[in-house]
Amino acid sequence: MVIYERPVRMEDIDAAGIVFFPRFFVYAFEAMEHFVNDVPGRHLELFTKERIGFPVVRAACDYRVPLRYGDVIRMAISVTKIGTTSCSFRYDITRVPDGADVATVEHVVVATDLKTLTKIPLPDDIRSLLGAHLIT
Amino acid sequence: MVIYERPVRMEDIDAAGIVFFPRFFVYAFEAMEHFVNDVPGRHLELFTKERIGFPVVRAACDYRVPLRYGDVIRMAISVTKIGTTSCSFRYDITRVPDGADVATVEHVVVATDLKTLTKIPLPDDIRSLLGAHLIT
Amino acid sequence: MVIYERPVRMEDIDAAGIVFFPRFFVYAFEAMEHFVNDVPGRHLELFTKERIGFPVVRAACDYRVPLRYGDVIRMAISVTKIGTTSCSFRYDITRVPDGADVATVEHVVVATDLKTLTKIPLPDDIRSLLGAHLIT
Amino acid sequence: MVIYERPVRMEDIDAAGIVFFPRFFVYAFEAMEHFVNDVPGRHLELFTKERIGFPVVRAACDYRVPLRYGDVIRMAISVTKIGTTSCSFRYDITRVPDGADVATVEHVVVATDLKTLTKIPLPDDIRSLLGAHLIT
Predict the structure, then answer these.
(1) Which of A76, A103, B84, D7 is most buried per CB count within 10 Å?
(2) What is the distance between the alpha carbons of residues A110 and D50, in angstroms, rounded to a whole number?
(3) Largest Cα–Cα distance of chain B, in whole Å?
């Protein structure tokens, strides 16, 4: 399990005064970047140099507690499935410091050649990293 | 079934040159607003005057075809479930004009008193509107 | 002068309940797209087929009246300067229907080859269009 | 002078593959928050407890070098003017690590009672903080 923390920012808030629900998926993307950056800069290197990205083919979120400006979230990142070209992540989101159970995001990403937008096998180092955090 | 169309905008695009996946949930929100605005201005009236909103408790999307700047999407809005305080929407997204099957978004919203953030029964007119578009 | 109208959307609002100030520049971009689309689809054609874009080299906004969710804005688009490779736009923003004087955005854009990110002369049809709306 | 650093994120990028120009104003807002948080949590405390915010009445940016996904920016924050209710900030943005001169953002903010949206004198501690970073 890998941990990613970030504050709720002004631009995340909607007219109801709470985080606009699509923003949780932005948080999930950032958390995945953070996960891949177990070797610092690895996500950028894949993206920019090797032209490999991880587009999402399925994403879902359950929302339990609304978030407000200034809240800090803690995302516990797990891997729930590893395929040949795809993998599944789960992000258990709690609020810091009170530990409130805020939301769970899940998404499935596919290793993709960004030049052709076709799927490719997961890079070896990413597969190893995923394996180290697979929960069963 | 209600139809909502909108263009893919510059700000929807990410560094891979395709629509950033959280944006599909922004599209879903806009489509729901459009649905509620069967009586023009009704969503705003609920939100601003009656202080009733529809926060999302679950959202999911399946992504099949990537979208690019300038694409136009057509969202076919259906109601899949009506509860006492909540309801479920499905948005079948195709690309105009070729009809490509782009994505399906589903979300569950809960009628909510925005002053207290507590759930309330669906307003009568909204319940009727939902019923007219319920698919089984 | 060309007119562009659009509603204030949920995602435009910040934690203070008013439009987050950077969003006015998103509105300006949309208005410029609308202006270039005097021939429908022209902005997209330039961008996608001819790989010509109009990056901003200077942008400024004066804010006078805060906007809220559900407000509708009317942007009056003028051209204030036409150079060889660049031009300047002004957007006078009022609120519909009361005509409140909301804000003025100005920005300078440069015709740019998107493959090389180098500046190029303004395309002839765009130069003509700009000329038709130049104020002095 | 106070320094704020942050990476260019996936959502900051537009269809031209560079940071969408309105995002620089989001960066400026974050930098101002960081500045006010000289006492950690002070911006949030003002906003949430005292209901004091700093809406922008004027904002401007000069853009010199386009930014791409993965770039890191360094914002040098200065105060250029202190009034009774308002103050002016300048953010000199360079790219890390090569020091490229990317952009300059300036904005004027007004201390505001968020309940009534009326201007108020700058809080004393904020005035002192501003004074410590005033350039002439």
Answers:
(1) A103
(2) 47
(3) 45
| CB-based burial label for C80 (10 Å; 0-12, 13-18, 19+) | middle
The reply to whether C29 touches chain D by the CB within 8 Å rule is yes
Residue type, A81: K
CA distance C136 to chain A (A): 37
Which single residue is written with the structure tokens 């560079």? D18
- With residue A127 as reference, give the H or E element that holds it: helix A124-132
Q: Which of C3, C4, B8, C22 is nearest to C12 (CA)?
A: C22
- Confidence band for A125, pLDDT divided at 50, 70 and 90: very high
> DSSP secondary structure string, A23-61?
HHHHHHHHHHHHHHTTSTTHHHHHHHTS-EE--EEEEEE
Q: Looking at residue C136, what is its pLDDT?
A: 81
- What ipTM was assigned to the predicted interfaces of this complex? 0.96
**If residue C101 lies in a helix (H) or strand (E), which one and from where to where?**
strand C101-110
- What is the C-alpha separation between A38 and A41, in angstroms, rounded? 8
Separation in Å, CA C65 to CA B73, C70, D113: 33, 15, 15
Across the interface, of C11, C47, C70, the residue whose CB is closest to B26 is C11
Contact A25 B22 (CB under 8 A): yes
Across C90-107, average pLDDT = 97
Question: Would you say residue D57 has pLDDT above 90?
Answer: yes
Establish if D11 touches chain B: CB-CB under 8 angstroms.
yes
Count of CA atoms in the C-beta half-sphere (13 A) of C87: 27
Q: What was the pLDDT predicted at B136?
A: 81
Whole-number pLDDT of residue B94: 98
Q: Which of B11, B15, B69 sits opposite D10 (nearest CB)?
A: B15
